[in-house]
From TrEMBL, chain A:
Coiled coil: none annotated. Mediates the uptake of pyruvate into mitochondria. It is found in: Mitochondrion inner membrane. The keyword Transmembrane applies. Belongs to the mitochondrial pyruvate carrier (MPC) (TC 2.A.105) family. This is Mitochondrial pyruvate carrier. GO terms for biological process: pyruvate import into mitochondria. The keyword DNA repair does not apply. InterPro entries: MPC. GO terms for cellular component: mitochondrial inner membrane. Its main location: mitochondrion. Keywords: Membrane, Mitochondrion, Mitochondrion inner membrane, Transmembrane, Transmembrane helix, Transport.
Automatic annotation (TrEMBL), chain B:
GO terms for cellular component: mitochondrial inner membrane. Mediates the uptake of pyruvate into mitochondria. The keyword Cytoplasm does not apply. Keywords: Membrane, Mitochondrion, Mitochondrion inner membrane, Transmembrane, Transmembrane helix, Transport. Belongs to the mitochondrial pyruvate carrier (MPC) (TC 2.A.105) family. It comes from Ambrosia artemisiifolia (Common ragweed). This is Mitochondrial pyruvate carrier. One of its GO terms (biological process) is pyruvate import into mitochondria. It is a multi-pass membrane protein.
Amino acid sequence: MATSKLQALWNHPAGPKTIHFWAPTFKWGISIANIADFAKPPEKLSYPQQFAVTATGIIWSRYSMVITPKNWNLFSVNVAMAGTGLYQLSRKIRHDYFNEEETAAAIKE
Amino acid sequence: HLDQAWWDGISDPISYSPYSSDPLLLQFHLQQTAILNSPVGPKTTHFWGPVSNLGFFIAGVADMKKPPEMLSGNMTGVLCVYSALFMRFAWMVRPRNHMLLASHALNESVQLYQLSRWAKGKGYLQPKEDKAPSST
């Protein structure tokens, strides 16, 4: 019973024998690289790149549901990409726009 | 030939249209199959997905001015493999997505260039120095 389920997964049209599996699986690398970058100081983050990551994630989450075969793997990886991109953007925006009062106060002192 | 979809490469839509004998139907058919109304056109997510991937390409082009020390080898390498895989994906997915293929081909070239800049900056692409002492 377990083997037939495994066989069904192995032979799935979006399964490990197809590019429909490996392309999204590798896309996790982008989210993992972004999570590794959570440790980077916000000055070193790039607005264009993080915006591209976030927009790509949101648009592709929708795209993965309308292609043939429907690809949940691609959906999940793009949701994760959008999440990490949004977090990085929020870090950088907070640093750029909401720390100004602190630095201005420090300069005045 | 009537089962062939437009994205599989029909060059003459009028002669291949099933409505060549009826001008009104032909006009309607041509309108429906025009680019704006295309099944992979600007009204669909099959269009905006590839457009969003051009974001990576544009970020890569903007980063060409950056000094190699500021490039991330991890991210650039990952993006190279990512674009190669997705060029294949764009070809095999249904509907076949030529725009996606093109956007990833562009991204692949710029990311490979950035990867070479990063590698040279790190000294990975130096020629062997066992023949004569180099003056670098």
